[in-house]
Write a structure and sequence with these properties.
By secondary structure, the chain is mainly β. The chain has one helix and eleven strands. Helices cover about 5% and strands about 40% of the residues. About 15% of the residues are buried.
């Protein structure tokens, strides 16, 4: 009987924490040329889908949690990672900004200067960001957020005898031109689990 024996996990359902991040993931083509590696991270990352729920209250109810009387008003969908690699191209994705090449310095080599933008532009949104891992069997699992913007804080730690790492948060955004078959706006995240396929 299930209530008297230990719960032995199915390897298909046990997912491993180690993985890789890529921008512009194509679930139908792992070798798509538009896919860009995020780069090395330290400490993995986190995937969060946080709804904001509004209960429908009425006189005489027994609390805010009444079956059938709750609706979602918002959803916050994010991936947070700690980047070990950081160059100007990655900075522009982590926190949209402008990179300028400077060649008129005096007695200094030419250099690239990154400066954050005052506000966001359409071009700052990235098609998607995927955290790709696997289960114990080696089947690939991808956690994908869409219409991505690096709109969180960019926090770097400078520690003696250690490498600089940068924690950054990417947020998915609703696109009201992307509708499902029922005319509802699509929630900008999905999870894919491939059957008996191992990433190479």
């Amino acid at each position: 009987m299930p209530i008297t024996r230990p719960a032995v996990p199915n390897p298909k359902n046990v997912q491993l924490g180690a993985g890789v991040l890529v921008f512009n993931f194509n679930p139908d083509d792992w070798d798509a040329p538009e896919t860009i590696a995020f780069g090395a991270v330290r400490g993995g990352g986190s995937y969060n889908v946080e709804p904001t729920n509004k209960p429908i209250r009425f006189d005489g109810d027994r609390g805010e949690d009444s079956k059938g009387l709750k609706r979602k008003t918002e959803q916050k969908i994010q991936i947070t990672v700690t980047a070990l690699e950081l160059d100007h191209a990655k900075l522009k994705k982590n926190m949209p900004g402008k990179v300028t090449n400077v060649t008129n310095g005096v007695d200094v080599p030419e250099y690239n200067k990154y400066r954050p933008k005052v506000d966001y532009d359409e071009e700052d949104y990235i098609e998607n960001l995927a955290y790709i891992t696997s289960n114990v069997n080696g089947d690939v699992v991808a956690y994908v957020i869409e219409n991505v913007l690096g709109d969180g804080a960019l926090s770097m730690a400078f520690t003696d005898k250690d490498e600089v790492v940068a924690e950054t948060t990417f947020t998915a955004h609703f696109d009201y031109e992307q509708l499902d078959d029922d005319g509802e706006v699509i929630v900008p995240t999905y999870i894919v689990q491939y059957e008996s396929e191992t990433a190479t």
